[in-house]
Amino acid sequence: MLKESEISDLINQSGRLRMLSHRSGMLLSFVSHSSSPDPWFSDELEKTSTNFHTSYQLIVDKVANDADLSRSFHALLHKRAENESSIESVISDFMTKSSRLSEHLPTATQATSSSLQRFLKLIATDLLAALNKIVSFFESQLNKVSDNKSAGISDLAKEVEDSLSDVDNINLTVKMLALNASVEAARAGDAGKSFGVISKEMNDLSQQIRQVSDNIKRDLKSFVEHM
Q1: Using one digit for the tens of pLDDT, what is the confidence trace for 103-156?
Q2: In this predicted structure, what is the pLDDT of residue 71?
Q3: Domain spans of the chain?
Q4: Quick one: residue 122, left, alpha or beta (phi over 0 = left, psi -120 to 50 = alpha)?
Q5: Alpha-carbon torsion (183, 184, 189, 194), positive or negative
Q6: Is CATH 1.20.1050 correct for 4-150?
């Protein structure tokens, strides 16, 4: 099972996909309206497209490390609503069109205005919606992990409380033994001095046990309240 930090990283990676897709659209739009585009923009567009593909693959690879998460994620990618393409097909369409349009650079006149407009619309509508669904999916997974973790901590806290209850019962027995030793010491007089020593030691032990138990209960309560 993936850790909270790993799922948080998936959320960040998904958000990065949105940034890279918008960057691709801006670069293509700029170059298409420039009579003599700077080669830097062509290089940046190629890097951006490559980074998008790499980031998406990193997400897929990371998800593959968790069987249950992987099944749910791939179900999300292939799910189709009425009159909607699957998330996977939208992402694939974006990467294909981005690559084709990039091939026309720096001679951007070959990239027709209509194809560019369709590409920009894809980024602003279908792709954005698809990536938002991916981000929401990982956010819901993070919430599940957090809820399960909280439930596990609550169960553990209950077990500790039960154990402390057993400690209190043991401590009561120690106090009773200390009291009995004190009574026997009083009855025996000088001959019962050893009982008196034992009684004092057992009383001291009982106080230490009580103090440790109270400290654990206090710290446990504080931890549960602030987790």
Answers
A1: 765 554 544 677 788 888 999 999 999 999 999 999 999 888 877 776 667 767
A2: 94
A3: 4-150, 153-226
A4: alpha
A5: negative
A6: no
